[in-house]
Structure formats: structure tokens, C-alpha cells
Amino acid sequence: MAPPAQSQRSQSPSQPSSKGEVSDLKLQLRQLAGSRAQGTDDSKRELFKKVISYMTIGVNVSSLFSEMVMCSATSDIVLKKMCYLYVGNYAKGNPDLALLTINFLQKDCRDEDPMIRGLALRSLCSLRVTNLVEYLVGPLGLGLKDNNSYVRTVAAIGVLKLYHISASTCIDAEFPSILKNLMLNDPEAQVVANCLSALQEIWSSEASTSEEASREREALLSKPVIYYFLNRIKEFSEWAQCVVLDLVAKYVPSDSNEIFDIMNLLEDRLQHANGAVVLATIKVFLHLTLSMNDVHQQVYERIKAPLLTLVSSGSSEQSYAVLSHLHLLVVRAPILFSSDYKHFYCQYNEPSYVKKLKLEMLTAVANESNTYEIVTELCEYAANVDVPIARESIRAVGKIALQQYDVNAIVDRLLQFLEMEKDYVTAETLVLVKDLLRKYPQWSHDCIAVVGNISSKNVQEPKAKAALIWMLGEYSQDMLDAPYILESLVDNWDDEHSAEVRLHLLTAVLKCFFRRPPETQKALGAALAAGLADFHQDVHDRALFYYRLLQYNVSVAERVVNPPKQAVSVFADTQSSEIKDRIFDEFNSLSVVYQKDLEVQTPYLTQGLKILQPSYMFTDKEHRGPFEFSEELGSLSVGAESADNVVLAQRVEASDNDLLLNISEKEESRGPSNNGSAYSAPLYDSSSISLVVSQTQSELTFPNPALPAHAPQASLAIDDLLGLGFPAALAPAPSPSSPPLKLNARAVLDPATYQRKWKQLPVSLSQECSLSPQGAAALTTPQVLLQHMQSHSIHCIASGGQPPKFFFFAQKAEEPATFFLVECIITSSSKAEIKIKADDQSTSQDFSALFQSALSKFGMS
């Protein structure tokens, strides 16, 4: 049996079959342009449809302009509409071709059919070509006097289009006065509305330069004009009613009787089916009664039902817009909506943005009478499959608790959330429990009993972990394992990526130290050491501050870090009352939806959001981690005998714009630093700075087996007390009788070991020294410096980049296991930035002196 024949698919009219399709259309249109045969209009329709479809999908059919104009000579209104659409699309980009359309458009403006007259006038005004302005004045003048209301309606908006093309031409032709006459006398409501809209825009633009325009704009807000519009408001379309109501909202009545008259006239607009009309009417009611407190409250009661009806009917988008306005009113008068809280319960089929807004409204209307029901409902949402909504519901419960409504029951509910064993629920609850404890310290016993059972390993979100750490430090005397939990967190310092968590950890460990010194001594020392070496500037600064504070006086440090606290009465609001009042003044606008007043919105809506990276953002590799060597170690060869065998392990970026951390742009002199930052801990003489035991036995001095035998127990150096040991940067200078450091001239270190050591070892010293003028002149190639340093038993394992960067190593002669690693950057100002890491940090100073001595002699021989 033969297979069935495949059906022929028809070519889609919206896709040209070839580049010659447009040429074929042009030929067919030209053939039909002068034809009067029967069925010509039907053929033109098919061709016009193809042209419009091509134009819609972006195909350039402007070459058909002349043929389309020639084919427009017809009485078929459908062809006229398509031709006007085509002309309006291409006229602005082809002003010379647009001139061809003037004759037939002006002719159509005098057509017997009012529909064609109106369409032609609208198309003529839509050309928006400055050179053709003179051709618009005549047809517009005729259109404003036309007997047909449709033509007058189009002409009123045409005047506004002319004003935007050429304001002087519009004013000179006295079109605004003609529009004013039509607005006050025309029997057609749509003509009146278009005239009002056009005049408002024209006079608002001209008011700054013309006193007459300013007077006319003020005249729009006169009592006769306002009452004229109010008496005809039922005749207007929904859009026109909104324009009129927006004008009425700006009117200032002379007395209360006038206010009531206006409200009575507009009472039935509150039952309108269109939400825009209802909101515009509500705006009028609210603004008219601002100075009448009793009436203003009654207005809230009156508008509540229409708004709640709009929320439950219509699309989700309309519900959100209405809810945004309702939320603004609820915030201003929550007591009036407290009995209607069930209207704000979330429905399962509502989108997330509507649910989120409803949760905010439930929080706002909560009071003593409805808190239990609202919190019960919110607790149900905590198990919602929509995680963002579950988070918002937990936050809502916390906000209600902070409002002092039924705190006892709410705390129990929050603590039950911690038993749900869901990461996001636990995280949000911990943040709320912290805030609750700040406001209600009396609940600490119940909360800490539950929080103490939570493992810090199960809390990953930074804000939640920071809240847990805050509680560990604040209530360490009530939590038996607090010092040990904090110690484990300090041990994992490098694995914690959040600076907020590290900042909280520093403070919490110090607080715990003041309450339980013996158990926290080691953790505090480790935390301060890690903080001083931290790459984040805030963490480093706080650690340095705590370090110096402890060295100055422990008692003062305790009063600064852990002073007696009072319960927080009020938490900072996200929006000031002034901003809320400005948003209320812009009721029934996008300001309410965005919750931003117009002054804030304008730059974003007109210019776009432009984000600038702060100038202090670090870009240096050292603030992103240690220098990374190439994983392909086969490309790196290391010679034990000659520096000629040293090749580049990994090429440093040539355009490494290290502007902020460039030593040549820093201070000329700087002490040793733990992290290479602009701040460094000073060198303290441990023999002169000590903690002295004063009146009570509880003063912070404890025996330490690491102390020398002659060290007095009553005066303990702060470094040893904190478990920092005696690093080279803080140790006393070596005695002159100490033997000089000797290096192994034939030291060998493979690249893998170098890379591993560089990552593991802390920075012992970070210094800057200058090259001699002879050395700077001799540095023609990297090999020259490598050979010089090798003569001093300092070997290079990698070099390259611009500015030149070298990685050296050296081996202690007496101790083969002790290596010194150096990163040396030669800047354009003939200075050398030196960073030293050592297996034995106590000899770092000696090696640094040896290295600088060798570098200073470069080029001298």
C-alpha cells in the first residue's frame, strides 16, 4: 500500500518566503493602485495584510511607502485603517516620505464619513514630524469645530500631540482657549474629558513661564468648574471619571458643608465596578476630611467594605494593587480594621506577592482581642511548602510578639518551631528569639533551655548563626556548654565565610570570657589571633580594638563590651512617618504599590538604576586568599645549584591593578602586620604591660605552664593570658649575644611542598624596603636578581608578572625542617614589598634582617 501523500503546508503570511517577496508586493500594489475593476479592494486587503504582518515582525517594508499611499485612494474603511497604521509607523523615520502622505490625509480629513475624518486626523497628528507642523493647524482647527463628537474627541488629543511637537505653534494658534470653550460647553462627555486632560498637561507645562497659563490652571480648581464636572460625572467613561476625580482631590472646599455636598455627590461612586474609580473616589474622601478627625474616621469605616470587596474580586494583580492601598490605611488606623482580620487570611491559590502583603496586614491589625486567632493562622503557614511564605509567617509571629500582645503564648509557639527540624524554620526562629530576648529578658530561662539543645553545626544561615552566637555570649552563665561551643566555632574560623558571624563570634567569646574566664581563655586567645589575621577590615579592626582594650584595663574592657543593659523598648522602623505621610498624599498612584514616594521613584523610573562599586572594595589577591600556584607542577622546574634553572611556575596577571594595597602608595614606615592591611598591632613590651591582681580573687590571672619559671604569677603578660603565646611580632627583641642565623646554601624545596606551606603558614612579617639606585638600575632582567639572592643562600622558586613578583625560600642550616618563604614584589618606585612566612616564627625577625641586607646590596658589587 502506497504511503499517503503529504499535505502541502501553506506559507505563513507573516514570514516572507524570500528576499524577493517585498519586491513582488511592490509590483502587485503598483498594478492595483489605479485599477477600478471589481474585486480590487479585496485584493488590496490581502496585500495590505501581508505588509502589516511583515511590519509587525520587524521586516523592513518602508520601500512600499509610495505604493501604499497610492492604494489608499479608496472608500473602504478597513483599507484606510491599515494604510494609516503603516504610514504612522514609518513616517517619523522617513520624514521625506511622510510628505507624500499629507495630501491624501488632508483630503480624508474633509471626507463625508466622520469615521474617516477622525482616523485621518489622528494619523496626521501621529506623524510627529517637525517639518510637517504647518500642515496640522488647519485640520485641527476644523476638527475642533466638527459636528461629529468623535472627530472633536480626536482633535482634542491632537492638540496635545501638536503641543509636544511644537509648543509655540500650538499656543500661537490659540488652541488652549478653544479647548477650554469645548470643555465647558460641549455636550459630549468624552470630548470634555479629553479637553480637560489636554489642558491640564499644557497649562502645567506652561505655568512656569506664563502667568496666564498659571491663572488658567488655578481656574480649573475653582468651585464652578469643579461642580460642573461633578454634576456630569455619571456621563463620563471610567477613564474620564478618574481624570475628574483626580482634579477634585486637589480642590480645597471653603467650608464643611461643601465637603459634605461633594461627598454626597460621589457616594455612589464607591459602589462602582471599576477598582480605579473606587480608589480615586476614596482619595477624594480622605483628602477632603483630613482636617476633620471625626469625619475622617467615619470615612475609614465607609470605605472599608468597598475595598474588601475589590480585594476578593477580580484578578490577582488588581487584588495586590487594592491590598497595597488597604495596607497603607491599615497602618494609619489599625484599630478600625482589627475586626476584619479574617479577610487577610491567605488562600491556597493566591500568588506569593499577595500572600506576603496579607501577612504584613495581619501583623498590622493584631491586637489583644485577635492575637490568638492570628498567631494560630500564621503558625499553620510556617509549614507551608512555599518556603518564602513560611519564613514571612514566622517573622510575622515575631513582630506580633514584639508588639507586647500575648507574649507568653507566642514564645511557646516560637519555641515549638525549633522542634520542627527544618533548617529555614530554625534559622528564622533563632533570629526572632534573639530579638525577643532583647525586649523581654525575663523569658531568657525558657528560651535558653530550648536554644541550648540546638547544634551550631545545623545552623548555616549567617543571620541565624549570628543570633545563636549572640545568645551564647549573652547568656553564657546559663548555658553550660557555651564556652565549648564557642571554642569549636573559633577552631573553624577559616571555614566561616560571613564577616557578620565572625564579628559576633569575637564579641561573644569576650563576653563569655568575662563570665567564665578559665574555660574561655584559650578560645579568646585563638579568636583574637584569628581576628587580627582576618582579611576583612571590620573583623580585623574589632579584634585589634578588643586586644588593645584588654591590654589597657580588663575592668574597663568589661564595662565597654558587656555593660548593664536595659530592655529594648522600640525597634527601629523601616520607614519614617514622614515618608508614610508623603506616600499617603500620593494615594491612588504607583507610590503606594512601590511604597516609595515620587521623589524616590523618579530617578529609577527615568534614568534607570545605576550601581557604582565603592572605591574601597579590595581587589588584591591577598584579600581573596593566598597566591595560587599552578596545579600543573610539571611546568615548574627548580634547580638547587643555579638560578638559571628557575622558571615561571605561574604567570602573575600583568594588569594587577593593586591600587589600594600598593606599598608605594602607603605610609613610608609601618610596623609588622598580621594580615598585610593598613592597620597593625603595635609591638608591646610584655615586661612592662601586665594585668595586676587587685582587690578580689576573681581578677583575671591564672597559672600558665608555658610561662618561664621566673615569671611572677601575680603579673601575667596579656599575650600569654589570652593563649596567644609569644609570636615574633610581639616578643621582646633577641639579645645581642644570640648567634647569627645561618642558611643552607644548597637548600632544595619542591613546588608542591612550597605551595602547601604557603597556604598553611601564617604571615610572620609584612614589610617594605628600598632598593639602592644601583640595584634599581641593575634590575634589567629577573635572572640578575635571582643570581644575586642565591649567592646569599636565598633561592627563587617562581617569578614573573608586572610589576615583578618573586617567590623565594631559604632553609635554616642547623634545622633542616625549618624553611622561610618570601613573597617579594618590586614596585615601579624601586621599593620592595616583602611578606615572610616561617616554620619557626621566632627566627622571622633574624631572617628578615638577613633578607633585607642581601636585597640592599643588590647592584652594589
UniProtKB/TrEMBL annotation:
It is found in: Endomembrane system. Residues 1-24 are annotated as: Disordered. Residues 741-856 form the Beta-adaptin appendage C-terminal subdomain domain. It comes from the Eukaryota. InterPro entries: AP_beta (IPR026739), AP_complex_bsu_1_2_4 (IPR016342), ARM-like (IPR011989), ARM-type_fold (IPR016024), B-adaptin_app_sub_C (IPR015151), Clathrin/coatomer_adapt-like_N (IPR002553), TBP_dom_sf (IPR012295). Transmembrane segments: none annotated. GO terms for biological process: intracellular protein transport; vesicle-mediated transport. Pfam families: Adaptin_N, B2-adapt-app_C. Keywords: Membrane, Protein transport, Transport. GO terms for cellular component: clathrin adaptor complex; endomembrane system. The keyword Plastid does not apply. One of its GO terms (molecular function) is clathrin binding. Signal peptide: none annotated. Residues 1-18 have a biased composition (Low complexity). Its main location: membrane. Gene3D superfamilies: Leucine-rich Repeat Variant (1.25.10.10), TATA-Binding Protein (3.30.310.10). Subunit of clathrin-associated adaptor protein complex that plays a role in protein sorting in the late-Golgi/trans-Golgi network (TGN) and/or endosomes. The AP complexes mediate both the recruitment of clathrin to membranes and the recognition of sorting signals within the cytosolic tails of transmembrane cargo molecules. Belongs to the adaptor complexes large subunit family. Adaptor protein complexes are heterotetramers composed of two large adaptins (beta-type subunit and alpha-type or delta-type or epsilon-type or gamma-type subunit), a medium adaptin (mu-type subunit) and a small adaptin (sigma-type subunit). This is Beta-adaptin-like protein. It comes from Tetracentron sinense (Spur-leaf).
